Known about the structure:
globular; Rossmann fold
Amino acid sequence: MPDGEQQFRLPGPTDRLSVMGRTGSGKTHLSSWVLSHTNFTSKPWIVVDYKGDELLNRIEGLVEHSIKSRPPRKAGLYVVHPRPDEENEVEDFLWKVWERGNTGLYFDEAHIAPTKGALQALLTQGRSKRIPMIVVTQRPSWVSRFVFSEADYFSVFHMNDRRDRKTIEEFVPIDLEKPLGEHHSHWFDVKNNSKFYLKPVPDGSTILARFRQRLRGMKGWNGFI
């Protein structure tokens, strides 16, 4: 996977990862692979999935949760499927996550998410409240700048739009004009100031098998009922 001599690290239990790339670049695939390594066996992780991503929704044991309900307390992996017009419901849900803390959040297509106070609070204060985040977007120029200024890690795939590339280059010291191989990406570890060129992550079946194994190993997890 990593192509380099420096030590490659995945995000830790309070870190936030920003993942960017055009449609079909491989960003959701890598993000799902990272999610499969998170600590959802010891705390709840919630996937906010606007578009109904095929790979994410094939995770065996993933539990559907209503955006209008209170966030889950039990460790495990959950998904909410808000509509783009449910901005108020999403905002209210995110504030409840912020109040409770100790919950992981995965945003697919984050440029659709409301940019009111809750998302900003999660990005700027979530670390102290033990709220790790994976934020995925194909349009960096449309999301809050806190998605980048508060990131501990960046994953950057091919970007079509020059405005999006310019936004990323303000925060990540990489040359986005350099061509990338199919499903290859740049990885930047902010704390260690380390850059990596990543080859494609394992295939979908391998990622899904990892989710299945970890969720089945959780005592009392009811996602398979």
